[in-house]
């Protein structure tokens, strides 16, 4: 693995293959879980949606790995959710649940972000209350994020209202370009997590990644640029394909 410091709030961890990146994610999850449980008696993590992280959840469900975590002390949240029922193939919760229902992962407490609630504002407020009850001040131990080709992360899409939300931790977010609603943690919640990881894989993401790392900061245009702070730096877990063209000599 090659570690590259991007700036004072972001590092890139570049792996030869996506398999190595997945293995690192699973190892890091276990390490952070064990650290949190020994320090605070529990572990809170927000999972990302989309397709990239699914092999990580599969690895965590692998019997040899699963036994390394006391899942009864784990609280699983989601960084964002589509506004669909949990049984919909689009549901981030539903897709992760296929792995999180495998013993002993099924002992974890899973907190679904209710994207198909009749009142999204109330659902977001209720989720925020839960987050603040379970994690002191709503600070997660760990958050996994992805990056879309348009530079979004979680459901914080370019030119959307949620990007400027500076007090709430959870909010509905209307996406005018897609004419649909999403539910998302805000950057307040994302950047208060004790450990922040963004898993970005494949050549298709290399172009947007270069903009996220090296373009002038413009969060409205490139929300993913806002991942990580000096206090809570973000680690971008990449394979060589995603790191292509970054000029990072990896
Ligand atoms: C979602 C995600 C989103 C995702 C990116 C990347 O609900 O879609 O949470 O932020 O991480 O869109 O998605 P892929 O991993 O499928 O490329």
Would you write up a description of this structure?
By secondary structure, the chain is an alpha/beta fold. It has a single domain (2-239), classed as 3-Layer(aba) Sandwich (Rossmann fold). The chain is 28% helix and 22% strand. The longest helix has 23 residues, at 18-40. Bound molecules: 6-phosphogluconic acid. 6-phosphogluconic acid (6PG) binds next to loops.
Secondary-structure blueprint:
Blueprint: E1 2-7, E2 10-15, H1 18-40, E3 43-47, H2 54-60, H3 63-66, E4 74-78, E5 80-82, H4 92-100, E6 109-110, H5 120-134, E7 142-145, E8 170-175, E9 180-185, H6 187-190, E10 195-200, H7 206-214, E11 234-239
Parallel strand pairs: 2-11, 3-4, 3-7, 4-6, 7-10, 10-11
Antiparallel strand pairs: 1-2, 5-9, 8-9
- Mean pLDDT rating: 97
Alpha carbon gyration radius: 17 Å
Structural class: alpha/beta
Distinct ligands, ions and cofactors found in the model? 6-phosphogluconic acid
Question: In what range is the share of β-strand residues?
Answer: 15-25%
Question: For the report, how would you describe the main beta sheet?
Answer: 8 strands, mixed
Element order, helices and strands? EEHEHHEEHEHEEEHEHE
What's the short version?
This protein is 28% helix and 22% strand. It is an alpha/beta fold.
Which features characterize this protein?
eight-stranded mixed sheet; 11 strands; 28% helix; single chain; 250 residues; alpha/beta; 22% strand
């Amino acid at each position: 693995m090659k570690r590259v410091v991007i700036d004072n709030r972001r590092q890139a961890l570049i792996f030869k293959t996506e398999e190595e990146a997945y293995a690192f994610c699973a190892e890091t999850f276990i390490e952070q879980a064990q650290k949190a449980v020994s320090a605070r008696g529990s572990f809170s993590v927000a999972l990302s949606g989309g397709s990239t992280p699914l092999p990580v959840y599969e690895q965590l469900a692998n019997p040899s790995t699963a036994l390394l975590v006391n899942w009864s002390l784990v609280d699983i949240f989601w960084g964002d959710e589509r506004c669909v029922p949990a049984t919909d193939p689009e549901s981030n919760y539903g897709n992760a649940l296929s792995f999180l229902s495998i013993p002993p992962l099924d002992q974890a407490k899973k907190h679904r972000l209710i994207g198909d609630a009749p009142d999204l504002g109330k659902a977001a407020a209720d989720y925020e209350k839960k987050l603040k009850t379970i994690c002191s001040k709503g600070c997660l131990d760990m958050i996994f994020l992805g990056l879309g080709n348009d530079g979004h992360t979680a459901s914080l899409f370019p030119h959307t209202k949620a990007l400027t939300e500076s007090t709430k931790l959870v909010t509905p977010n209307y996406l005018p370009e897609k004419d649909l609603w999403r539910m998302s943690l805000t950057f307040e919640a994302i950047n208060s997590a004790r450990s922040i990881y963004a898993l970005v894989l494949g050549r298709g993401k290399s172009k947007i990644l270069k903009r996220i790392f090296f373009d002038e900061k413009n969060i409205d245009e490139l929300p993913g640029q806002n991942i990580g702070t000096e206090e809570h730096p973000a680690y971008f877990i990449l394979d060589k394909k995603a790191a292509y063209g970054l000029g990072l000599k990896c």
